[in-house]
Amino acid sequence: MTEHILAAFQRLRATDPDRRLFSFVDEKGQPEASLTVRELGDAADRVVEAVREWGFQPGDRAILVYPPSLDFVGAFLGCLAAGVLPVPVYPPNPFKLKKDLATFTAIVDNCGARGVLTNSFYDRSRTAGTVTSFFSKDAPSWPSLGWYRTDKKKTVSGPVTWHDPGLGDPAFLQYTSGSTATPKGVILTHGNLAHEVTANAADLGLGPDTRGVFWVPQYHDLGLISVICSTIAGNGRTTLMSPMTFLQRPSVWFDVMARVRATHTAAPNFAFELAVRKTTPAQRAAWDLGSLRVVMSAAEPIRPSTVDAFFTAFADTGLKREVFYPAYGLAETSVSVSMGGRAVLTVDKSSLESGKVVAAPDGVTYLGCGRITKPGAVRIVDPATGVPCREDEVGEIWVDSPTKGLGYWGMESGETFHARVDGEDGDYLRTGDLGFFHEDELFITGRLKDLIIVRGRNLYPSDIEDCVRDVHPLVRPGGVAAFAVDHEQGEQLVLFVETKQEKVTAADVDGIVEAVRRQVYDDHQLACHAVVVGKAGTVRKTTSGKVRRLACKQAFVSGEITSSPATIRVSVQQSVEA
């Protein structure tokens, strides 16, 4: 695809205007709204005319704050068509602004937004939340910025001329999830988007017969680019639902997929765990999922035990194991780097700690994340020297691809986006992720910034977290975070552990702490400097569900965690084992 998605959509608008592109279902999985090509084009026209009337100029940034809805799709396409750079964000809860507003304000300030686009439903909620906050002395306030409802305009005054961008022109800002730092706005061009949509179509087998069902967030790169933008470009028909619909009733996801005979879907690892826990054998027996061709898993580490449990539980649905499609990507590369993982590799734990990959019958098991999306190039590089690693050596993942963004908005990002491999020409993106190649397949081991280095051993927090997820019946599997803190005896390990229940006894907490310490020492020969036991919410996460280990560390070091109402106990070990 050498044309930008605006041109692809306009061609579709001229040739197949009555094709249904999007449907949206409610919390029960029932159809709530839909958009044909013609209807989406008309919605985008209204947004184009509206933003111009409101004073937006090409190149201005517009924050998009929408609840999950098709209004978001029309607003996003309309901004592109007006030459305005959309900035999709997680919609802050108007009644709990203390939790969400700091990130929202940081994004507004960073991108220099001209205004905020939203719909009437959210704007009314925002107004109600503002009124409620009058009764709170320390309530935060929204940034001083104009808010505009895109669903108020019902008609246009005449023919609307769309912006015709060059492939090198910025299309929108995609803010990172902020799992290791403050969110940064990646500048993605129309060319980045065109190449990504083309690669997705080839790698995932997308076409007019594709029927996708997705609940991944619309403001997240996977949901926005791989789902919404691919659909706008004509690669299939998509049914969307709110992430909350899935979280509250995972069965709705499968109800809808079975009803529409879905061919494609995607979700992070935790979703498959939740599906096993929150659906029943009777429900699964009623679902025919045999039409699925791709079940992508991305956005967080993929656990082999999760995959095994999921396909065992869903064995009677007609779902074939070979449709499971591990992938790896990040916002800085317009989502995808590799796709179609097939290999399962168990490696020696001691060798891995020294950066070597040695296959072993027992050790740490990884699922491959597939081969590199063409025409991209990936190198595994020693992050300290810039020298390429050999196959089966762990290093930082560096990527060069036509999907690589221009950099971070308003920030110096040359070191990240224009890294040089020793002895090679060309610029690479430093992903900050660690991994290795084995038989031409990419494996991810963790984040460079999250690496725990204790007495010369390189330990991955995800491996430590995995070993304690099921160590006690009261530990919430998705609520564990491991990180290191500086100590007079060197870096020491701290774990945050959430409980499944709000109320636990002192004996329960004793049991959790003892079980966690024992399991970590048995598996990793490592003492826990501290174990923090708390209620749900103790482990800091991004809006897309990734563990924010740096934020957890900051809460521990600052003492914030000690006074948190979610904290049940902070158990610090006074004498550290050698």
Describe the fold and architecture.
- The protein is an alpha/beta fold.
- It has 3 domains: 5-246, Rossmann fold (3-Layer(aba) Sandwich); 343-447, Roll (Luciferase, domain 3); 452-572, ANL, C-terminal domain (GMP Synthetase, Chain A, domain 3).
- Helices cover 33% and strands 25% of the residues.
- It is built from 18 helices and 27 strands.
- The strands form 8 sheets. A 5-stranded mixed sheet has the order 11-12-13-14-17. It has a 4-stranded mixed sheet with strand order 2-1-10-9, with helices on both faces.
- Helix 2 (37-53) crosses helix 3 and helix 10 runs parallel beside helix 12 (304-313).
- The mean pLDDT is 93.
The best one-word shape is globular
Please identify, by name, the CATH architecture of the largest domain: 3-Layer(aba) Sandwich
Major beta sheet, strand line-up: 11-12-13-14-17
Return the average pLDDT rounded to an integer. 93
Number of discrete domains = 3
DSSP summary: helix tally: 18
What summary fits the major beta sheet?
5 strands, mixed
Radius of gyration: 24 Å
- Looking at the structure, the CATH topology of the largest domain is Rossmann fold
User: How far apart lie the N and C ends?
Assistant: 58 Å
Number of strands: 27
Which percent range fits the helix content? 25-40%
Structural class: alpha/beta
The low-pLDDT segments are none
What is the fourth-level CATH superfamily of the largest domain? ANL, N-terminal domain
| CATH top-level class of the largest domain | Alpha Beta
Which strand-content bin applies to the residues? 15-25%
